[in-house]
Amino acid sequence: MIPYSLHSIDEEEERAVMEILRSGYLTGGPKVAEFEAKFAEYVGAKYAIAVNSCAAALYLAIKGIFPGKWVRIAVPALTYVATANAVVLAGHIPVFTDVDPETFCINPAKIPDVEGVIPVHYAGHPCDLDAIKQAGDWVITEDAAHACGAEYKGKKIGSINMTCFSFHPCKNMTTAEGGMITTNSDTLAEKLRRMRLNGIAKDGVYQDMIDWGFKFNMNEISAAIGIEQLKKLDRMNERRVGIAARYERVFMEMSEIKTQKTFPETLTSRHLFPILVKNRDELAAHLQSKGIITAIHYKPVHLMSWYRKKYGYKEGDFPIAEEIAKRVLSIPIYPDMTDEQVDYVIQAIKEGI
Prior knowledge:
The protein has eleven helices and 15 strands. It is α/β, with parallel strands linked by helices.
């Protein structure tokens, strides 16, 4: 079987985990702080705050910026539900927004009158952050679950605005489960560190809850894995870029397939390789019969049953996101994928298109 995604774990990660198991510190030790420092240095941010998932990172970032209630925050209709769920959990209102038909990222021209925007770097392709900033007076919090290692105009994603990353096993680097928030704000960094541990501040031996918070911290085992993965991230992303180039050389000659457009001022992390085809479901079934696993990213969030009932969204509200969702298929791309496997996937697609 060729999966659509697969983590890359070697002896270095195994050794790092065993060292933690023998150290006496499974949580609350020095590895999380080390991982945070190295990640902040890598992306070029002043601070990095490690948490137990990207969903937790999004919630904390939103709640840290908007501690009140009922703030309107723009979210692309084409994303994973966690982006919008974090807004709801923080007590605010997700305002879905249509996407660009070429990049599949949020369309700056479609963002309505809101106080916050969460651009999602879909498939690892950076959103047009300058256009989003210029389009309105709003707070930008980036969802970079797909974009670890990506760059926008020569700057690493994570260095420009407050940004949330995912280290789920299917992502470009993993900590098994985990997430990270990066920020350049002294005040927010201090606040978020409290919020990830129940809002607690210490005064000597005494504790006081001075902010709202919950248990969102990362453990030492995850941090140890993350440190080793970070060392390999650029190399793993380079392989992803190479696989994507191999796909594109073939698919650009096939009128039946449309691929995500990329721009020269960006460096995409190539977390996913989405293609748009008219016979998506039939092609997915054909590929599965050949031992090739694919995925759909995503059913638009506004068409999920809960969001339909809660906010009254319906089909036709965001036509571009809906059209992409009907045709999109994520085909295999991961660092340990061989050229022979890539060629096998290409041939199977040619047969099933």
